[in-house]
## 1
Amino acid sequence: MHSNQVTAPARTAVVGLVGNPNSGKSSLFNLLTGLRQRIGNFPGVTVEKKSGKLKLAEIRTPVGTMDGEIAEDVRGVREVEIIDFPGAYSCYPTSLDERLVVQELTNPAGDLYPDAIVYVADVTKLDKHLLLFTQLRDLDLPMVLVLNMADLIEETGLKVDVERLSSRLRVPVVPVSARQGTGVDELKEVIADLLRNPEAYRPEEPFYEPGTRARDVLSELRRVLPARNNYHALLLAHHASWLKHIPEKTRHLVQESRVKHGFHSLRAQVEETMERYDTFEPIVRDTVRRGTNQSSLTDKVDNVLTHQIFGPLIFVVIMVFLFQALFAWSAWPMDGIEWIFESLGTGVRAILGPGWLTDLLVDGVIAGLGGVLVFIPQIAILFFFIALLEEVGYLARAAYMFDSIMQRFGLNGRSVVALISGHACAIPAIMSTRTIANWKERLLTILVTPLTSCSARIPVYVILISFAVPDVSWGPFGAQGLAFTGLYFLGITAAMLSALAFKLVLKSPERSFLMLELPEYRSPVWRNVGVTVWQKVKTFIVEAGKIILLISVVLWGLSTYGPPGAMDAARTQVQSQVETQGLDDDQAADLLASEQLEASFAGHIGKAIEPAIRPLGYDWKIGIALFSSFAAREVFVGTMAIIYSIGSTDDELRIQDRMAEEINPRTGEPVYNQATAWSLLVFYVFAMMCMATTAVTKRETGGWKWPIIQFTFMTVLAYVSAMVVYQVLS
Amino acid sequence: MPFPRTTTAALYTIGTTGVIDRFTNENLAGKLLDIGVRPGSRLSIIRKSPFGSCWYVKIDRHCLALRKQELACILIK
């Protein structure tokens, strides 16, 4: 601690936000940092790291005070980094999320080791939430205890003696309502003081002293373990086998010592936890007076929402409503975005005139970008609903209701969250699986989640369904709309059945848990919902935008240029054809365009894979689209736009109309007949066409094995099913 | 309705309430303790999950979803 004060602050001070799940920690984080958040990953692990900057008013003491002079106080603003650690129940982690907290808080040499901890506890659950608090306090970290949900103190008649709590726990205690934004200024002052003067906040005595067996191990290991105090050493002794900052040699020593002294980790944990409860429970009883029973509303709501029969029915109704709203509400903003990009393209073409740069900008960049940005309304709406369901506490209920079904398929109740989120985007869905403690259940969820129809498939479905299903309707149900719903069901059914297949293949001796907290229903904090939607949309635009922009440009290049000589040969051939057949200018231009595409690099690639995809009913042009879709499936529409627009004289036609005009030269039939369209649809439902998801699977599973298995499995499934569909329908 | 003397919570019926005595499985005990289920807590069985095998329980005032095997390691006095 002293060394920190002497050396000039080489790094920004780090403040860690720690607390139990459902303590309102993220609400407080959003309140403190607003949109000034950065989402990254914790180094070496896959858990999402949220950090942000916090400005603290500060009395800065200039360098030179060390010699004892009283220097002038300089009032200024100090910026600190605030890290939102994942929610954890104790220092004995069961999930990846919790492991990370222990990993970073026991590693004083790490970059993320906090200079101070803001410990967030739900004021209505202090009797549970103080367990982790006392553990971290014993690690000798400067701490402030935040009593979140202070708005409930008045509402429910809860009475908390803050001063007394503070003096008995020997830390500053600040009541905060992240919902109403009260108490934040006071909290900032306390944080500033904590950082300025950490020595004043060091604990005088620990809450817990290790038992006899543990003491033997500790006295032997204190010399080799890089521990700050006894409790720190105890945690290292418990967790040495997986903590990344413990060298291999030390791990062996720890193991030997544990065996020698008969140190039983589980038993020691249970003893410690019981003792801690015994220590802080009287403090809570002494300082908190409970008012009326505030969870009676939750009880009433849950009587209906988690009812044995009505519960699942209501769930289905909510999901149907969600997807209905998704399509109904997103229709006109999507039309608007499309219109903007079409006008932009036409405008640019009119200003720049014909030429290769115009083609690149209009057909490559603008068409590609438009193809991505058109998803924004749907992604925003989907994440809005998912964030809302999470905020009010419904997702935990869904996990409870479907746990037993999920278990039959080798999954966990918590997988429901991933499978719902997967309909927005597989990436956050896969990241949400880290709350599943059982590795096999988590792995299965990761493997099958990409089979659910994510929002990137929507535009592909929209275009192809118009060829697959006639535009008829019976009453309120349109055939195309039903087909759409059918594709979603196909995706989720495939996901469940695949999970079942993997369950039978994979063996795991690990125990599986549910043990799920069902938090009280709360009206949503709109700020949190807004921040989530904003962040997901931003990530989507940036990440998907980069890939799609790159691919559009590359694809445009590949389809405009060809091997030397081939393009010229195509041109000469077209010229002679024009002369012999007496074609007019328009026909000549179209013929030239299609011959040149065939002669281009893209045409060569398409031709090369054509034999493999002919049984599925695809020609080489679809081959080009498939090939580029493996980077990101949403590229399909842009690719179609590029393939069918190059060289053509009429830019007014929509992609769909151009595709409808396409004739198969061998059969003389339209290329996009029912069989081909259905075959393509099925292919896009099943195929793993998203590099970003593959990358996330690799990160989350820690190697190439599972992403490769996932990719192969899904692609084979897509290929075989599409072939069957085509052969049956044609 | 009181439980008979020290039985496992898996022998529940809906509406039963009792005080937790101890746990029979150390592995599960560690996790249960972490989420605030501990000897002395009052446990009541509220309802069964729609497709069976899980239970909606209340520990003191907090709601929790537990599987049948998880309840089976909790002894009630």
## 2
Amino acid sequence: MKGNGAQRSKGANGWLLSAPALVLLVFAASGPLLIVAVYSVLEKGDYSGVRWILSGDGWFRVLFERDIFDQTVSFADANLSIFWRSVKLSIATTLITFAFGLPTAWFIATRPAKSRAFWLFLITIPFWTNLLIRTFAIMEVIRNEGILNTALINAGLISEPIQILYTDTAVLIGMAYVYLPLMVLPLYAAIDRFDFRLIEAGYDLYASRLQVLRGVILPIIKPGIIAGSILVFIPSLGAYVTPRVLGGGKNMMIGNFIELQFGQGQNWPLGAALSTLLLLVVLVSLLVYTRVSSRDTPHE
Amino acid sequence: MNKKRAFDVTTLPGFTFIAILSFVLLYAPIATLVIYSFNGGNSVNQWGGFSLQWYVVAFNNQAVQDATVRSLIIALWASVISTTVAMMAALGTTRRGRFKGQTAIYMIINQPLMVPEIVTAVALLIFFSSVKIATGYTGLGYLILAHSAFCVPFAYLPIKARLEGMDTSMETAAADLYATPWQTFRYVTLPLLLPGVIAGAMLAFIISLDNVIITEFVKSAGQDTLPTYMLGQLRRALTPEVNAISTALLALTVLILIAFVFLTKKRE
């Protein structure tokens, strides 16, 4: 029979046709990631770059610092506060986008079929709009002379503008604003498949609204919740533009800290170690996500 | 108006309010940005009457002109290259049944969607800086290459979606009539696939045009694109010129998206 041969040529064709894309991606995306991992275990160069000598210093400096004079080792507090801020702001961003995203996705999914496409399009426009433009738009709103402070002053609620720009709050507002569509779209996809008769059944069995939400709706749209959370959490953790523009120079997140090592900091091995760490955290969260979602689908 | 049921199971208390609030919050800052691009005054906040002066200023700014041309060149090349390789990959991975290593191909193609952009940016900075030293070439090629790579998944997805919705019977018929595989592709598959290909190319174009981080790390001196130029401007005193550039970019994005919706809608 020719089954096996056809099978093999099918695979060969698939690989052959995919080859140009794979070469491009390995050359200009995946491959260089390996170089980063290698650079993280090399010695720091005198000016910039690296010397080709094996060294654990890059990884050591992720968490610790050594005193210049007496060589005592201590935790690098500045680094730890940057990690903590990144994690804290990313979790907060995920929670805020969920709080706004769930009702928004629900609202879109319950519109009549005709207008649903329109509401969905309204979410898609910000999604495809330049991140920098959206960050810039938020900056205009929250700056001291911006419309928010002006409106509050005109309303007599405050006499002095509130300093929001260049604080952690500004970064949080900015990230929640920028990543909200990433939460809404997967939630919408999950709710759209939802059978609303189940809610009716819940009410018929004398469930309260809260019980219906917790016992019927949330379990069924759980894959959408996890997907949305991952989609928001990962870019938040690696955010660079939003903290740079809204946080000013001081309120750095991991992304800005990495850039610093390749700019003024001139410590490429440390920068490479931080990048590898960030990549590992993201891969682990993706792995957990695929585990959780594949465990959820076959059951129930 | 249709009669509202006494108790509608699809509404949850407060949800509609928060949803409307979300839409308002999403659009209010963008609307402000757009409105102030038409400001006659010098401020991004103080209204000084309607005027197109900042569009004129931006248009006559040599740096903006150069950055615009550079952005468009890169985006055009990136969308052509990424769409071509993505189309081939989509043809190779769809409608042929599963084959060994298919998951690996998916993972590599979708890799730019998973890896944080800052990590890819750093990786390309390291890699390209040594290539630049080794070859002495510092042209736009690096940016085009980097953009082409991260645009691949965005071009791939609509093409794959279109292919999966396509009937194979036409191609079988062509093959039965002794068309060569190339003729079948050129005269049967490609015309049917074209809306997906154009949709993919448009998404790739937008993604390339909007890119900030990777461009910022890969570009050589004097290779600012529109977004990196704007990022550099944010350090200085803001004038509505940035609003004008943003509004122009925004308008282009919305136009492309509307075209995209019409292209992909026809399928039914």
